[in-house]
C-alpha cells in the first residue's frame, strides 16, 4: 500500500513539472517551439541613439548650411527653368573673379600684414601701429576680439595693447586678417543680408577651425590656414552676387536650389582666381584648388587639409548655433573630420556659442 501511494506521489510530481514547462513554452503560430535558439544577443534591446554613428557627410553639412542661409528647403534637383541661368552664371564667374567691379578688392593693409606675419622680427608695437592707423580696422578688430569665438576671458578688450596682451601677437594677426575681410561681407541688402550674415559666420568660424588644425594636426602655418579660409568665404560672396545680377538681368526670382548648386560647384574655383589676382602665395592657390568638388580625394597639401577641415567644422558650428543640428551630430562629425582631443573640444565650445550672444557681444 505504501509503495502504491509513493508511486502516485511521484507521478503527480512529474505531472506538475511537465505542466509547468508547458506553461513557460513560447507559443508560435503553429504552437511549436521556435527553430532558432533564444540567445542573450537576440534578446538584447536596440542600442540607444547616442551610441549610433551620427556623423554627417561633407555634402549633407553644406546642404544644411545653404538651407539655413537661404531660409528654405532645397529641392533634389535644380528646376528646369533655372538650368540656363546656372549655366550662364558658371560661364561668367571666372571672368567676374578678376573683374574689379565684381570681385572684392584686396584690402589695402593686407600686403603689409602678410609681410609682418612672415617677418619674425615684427614687434607688438609695430603691429599695434599698423592697426591704429586704420580706424575702421581698429573698430572691427576690437569687435571681433570681444566675440565668443576669439575672446579668452571675462574682461572686455578695449585697446590694441590689451588685445596683444590677452591674445598674443599671433592671435592679433589672425584677428587683423578677419577684420580686413569683414567689410566685404557687409555690402548686401534685401534678402541678400541673411545670406551674407550666415556666410560671414561660416567664414570666421572656418578660419578659426582651420587655424587650430594647422597648428595641432599639420604642424604648419596657422596664419596661412586662416587666410585661405577667409578667401574661400569671399569666393562664396562673389558667386552669390554674380548669380543675383544674372537673375536681375533676366527678370527672374532667384531659386535657392540653383544658387546652392552654383556655390557648391564654383566657390573653390572663384576663390582660387581671387587668390591669384591678389598675388597670394602658390600654396594658398594650391589649397583652394584642392577644394573643388571633383577633387574627392583627401587634399595632398597640409594647407588644403586644414582648409577642408575648417570648412566642414565652420559649417557644423553655425548649424549648431542656430539649432539645426545637435551636439551629438556635431561632435561625431568633428571627430570624423580629424578633430579629436581636448583642444578641439574647447574649440567646439567657443564656435557653438549661441548666435544671439555673438551678435550682442
Account of the protein in words:
The chain has helices at residues 2-24, 40-43, 58-70, 80-97, 110-118, 124-132, 135-145, 160-186, 192-218, 222-250, 256-277, 282-289, 302-321, 327-337, 342-351, 355-360. With 361 residues, the chain is mostly helical. It has a domain at 55-105 and 190-360: Hypothetical protein af1432 (Orthogonal Bundle). α9 (192-218) crosses α13. It is globular, with a radius of gyration of 30 Å. Mean pLDDT is 77; it is low at 2-11, 13-52 and 356-361.
**How many β-strand stretches?**
0
Pairing-aware structural class of the strands and helices?
mainly alpha
- Assess the beta-strand content as a share of residues: under 5%
- Give a quick account of the main beta sheet: strands, pairing sense, barrel closure: none
What CATH calls the topology of the domain at 55-105 and 190-360 is Hypothetical protein af1432
Mean pLDDT: 77
Morphology: globular
Going by CATH, the architecture of the domain at 55-105 and 190-360 would be Orthogonal Bundle
Helix percent band:
55-70%
Question: What is the distance, rounded to the nearest whole angstrom, between the alpha carbons of the first and last residues?
Answer: 99 Å
Number of helices: 16
CATH domain class name of the domain at 55-105 and 190-360: Mainly Alpha
Q: What gyration radius follows from the Cα positions, in whole Å? A: 30 Å
SSE ordering: HHHHHHHHHHHHHHHH
Give unreliable regions as ranges.
Answer: 2-11, 13-52, 356-361
